[in-house]
């Protein structure tokens, strides 16, 4: 049984005239007008019912009363057609009507207008993704055009408002629907829909116009840290994206990886690889990572486990196992007991040399911040200055007399206390102080004398607090009270 949905109950006079004009080729034995309505008579002179009749290039439908339908949806089995005011079946045409029954269409329950599209054969597009005039549309099993956000056949689309319906493509800045809302989203977010079919990129990492972007399970573009980057290798724990959503690489100043919502105050420098992953976040090339102790004013902090160094444009930087660039003075290459261990030295990528000893990674702001320092350097902590002498490989001279100055086991230059021209310094039993440029050493127990600039008295005599000290080859060899 074919079903007819009437859209207009009474035809206007103008419509009747139009129908008459369209029927000029109807044979008297077939088409006839009865009480102002067109009917079709069979060979016995009886009306035909629930069937199509063709006149010229158009098809017309005779309803259950045998009258030609106009302005109506015709349901013919599982297929829908539409006949216009002249009764002709429409083709390649959009038809709209009021949603008088308030039907829910797709996922939307607030639709005031229903749209159909009838193709070249007059059939309504139904139950699928269809292309109309180069744009993608989705129709349900009633032939209703869907709109708004739609999850269809496992894919996510945005189909505009109820009078648009086409699948948006490319980059779109859209309001986040209520069912997607969470605390991490703004009211509007960026989405990307594949240009060829309008499908949103979801739970994926995609290369778009020369840059990588990542999209979450709702298709929202990510612009912060992403945990477990979709589409990236399984070992990738974090990747960083810029405010424009493109994947960051190289140096970036950002909130920490454990603050993806950027609610804290601290930010750090990171060095990101080609996938946006911070250096050392997943370890370094299978090499053992060491602990490090950082100097904090007069004290040393608790060990930091898993530091590693990387050479970037011929400068060496230090990173912890969260990928955060470190600054300040560090003891590197420590085992669990706090002893230097060459097997646990921190390896510099891009070279085979190991970092073990005391190093300074510039804590001052500017272009050299974080870079490993060589040569003589003064480091200030809360107004206190500490003087170091770093070798060409960056390691500090420790238990060394270098350029005439004494550096202790922490690499700090030993100076006479403020107000004193000279001070006595004890070398502990068993300790050895090497001398730069000489094969000689100073072996403890011994006493040496330093001035206010850390210079060590090599020979001669010095008066300190009523005593005269005689020095030979850096070591005090005689003490004599004087007036």
Task: Tell me what the structure shows.
With 483 residues, this protein is mainly β. It has 1 helix and 41 strands. Strands 22, 23, 24, 25, 26, 27, 28, 29 and 30 form a 9-stranded mixed β-sheet that branches. A 4-stranded mixed β-sheet has the order 34-33-36-37, with no helix packed on it. A hairpin with a 2-residue loop joins strand 10 (128-132) and strand 11 (135-139).
Protein topology:
Elements: E1 3-6, H1 13-22, E2 31-34, E3 37-40, E4 51-55, E5 58-62, E6 72-76, E7 79-83, E8 93-98, E9 113-118, E10 128-132, E11 135-139, E12 149-152, E13 155-158, E14 170-175, E15 188-193, E16 204-208, E17 211-215, E18 225-227, E19 238-240, E20 250-254, E21 268-272, E22 290-296, E23 299-300, E24 304-312, E25 315-319, E26 325-326, E27 328-334, E28 346-349, E29 354-355, E30 357-361, E31 375-381, E32 384-390, E33 400-402, E34 405-407, E35 422-427, E36 432-435, E37 441-443, E38 446-451, E39 460-464, E40 467-472, E41 475-481
Parallel strand pairs: 24-28, 33-36
Antiparallel strand pairs: 1-6, 2-3, 4-5, 6-7, 8-9, 10-11, 12-13, 14-15, 16-17, 18-19, 20-21, 22-23, 22-24, 22-27, 24-25, 25-26, 27-30, 28-29, 31-32, 33-34, 35-38, 36-37, 39-40, 40-41
């Amino acid at each position: 049984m074919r079903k007819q949905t009437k859209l207009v109950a009474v035809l206007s006079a103008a419509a009747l005239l139009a129908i008459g004009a369209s029927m000029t080729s109807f044979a008297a034995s077939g088409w006839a007008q009865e009480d102002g309505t067109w009917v079709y008579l069979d060979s016995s002179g009886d009306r035909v019912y629930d069937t199509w009749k063709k006149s010229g290039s158009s098809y017309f439908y005779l309803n259950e009363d045998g009258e030609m339908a106009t302005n109506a949806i015709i349901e013919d089995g599982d297929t829908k057609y539409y006949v216009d005011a002249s009764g002709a079946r429409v083709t390649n045409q959009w038809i709209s009507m009021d949603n008088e029954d308030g039907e829910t269409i797709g996922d939307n329950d607030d639709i005031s207008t229903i749209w159909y599209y009838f193709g070249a054969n007059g059939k309504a597009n139904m139950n699928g993704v269809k292309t109309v005039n180069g744009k993608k549309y989705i129709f349900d099993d009633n032939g209703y055009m869907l709109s708004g956000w739609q999850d269809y056949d496992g894919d996510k689309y945005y189909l505009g408002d109820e009078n648009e319906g086409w699948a948006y493509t490319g980059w779109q800045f859209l309001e986040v629907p209520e069912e997607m809302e969470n605390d991490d989203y703004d009211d509007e977010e960026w989405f990307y829909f594949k240009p060829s079919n309008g499908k949103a990129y979801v739970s994926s990492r995609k290369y778009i116009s020369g840059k990588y972007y990542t999209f979450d399970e709702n298709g929202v573009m990510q612009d912060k840290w992403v945990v477990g980057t979709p589409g990236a290798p399984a070992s990738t724990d974090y990747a960083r994206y810029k405010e424009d959503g493109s994947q960051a690489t190289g140096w970036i100043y950002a909130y920490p990886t454990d603050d993806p919502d950027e609610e804290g105050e601290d930010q750090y420098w990171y060095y990101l690889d080609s996938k946006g992953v911070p250096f050392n976040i997943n370890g370094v090339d299978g090499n053992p990572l060491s602990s490090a102790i950082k100097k904090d004013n007069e004290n040393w902090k608790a060990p930091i486990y898993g530091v590693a160094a990387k050479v970037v444009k011929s400068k060496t930087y230090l990173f912890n196992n969260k990928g955060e660039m470190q600054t300040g003075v560090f003891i590197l290459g420590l085992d669990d007991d706090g002893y230097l261990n060459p097997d646990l030295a921190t390896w510099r990528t891009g070279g085979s040399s190991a970092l073990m000893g005391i190093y300074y990674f510039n804590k001052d702001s500017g272009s050299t911040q974080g870079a490993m320092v060589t040569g003589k350097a003064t480091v200030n902590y809360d107004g206190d200055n500490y003087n170091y002498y770093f070798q060409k490989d960056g390691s500090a001279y420790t238990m060394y007399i270098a350029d005439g100055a004494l550096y202790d086991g922490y690499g700090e230059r030993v100076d006479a206390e403020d107000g004193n021209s000279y001070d006595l310094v004890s070398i502990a039993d068993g300790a050895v102080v090497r001398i730069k440029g000489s094969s000689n050493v100073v072996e403890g127990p011994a006493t040496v004398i330093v001035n206010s600039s850390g210079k060590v008295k090599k020979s001669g005599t010095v008066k300190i607090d009523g005593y005269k000290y005689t020095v030979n080859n850096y070591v005090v060899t005689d003490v004599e009270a004087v007036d």
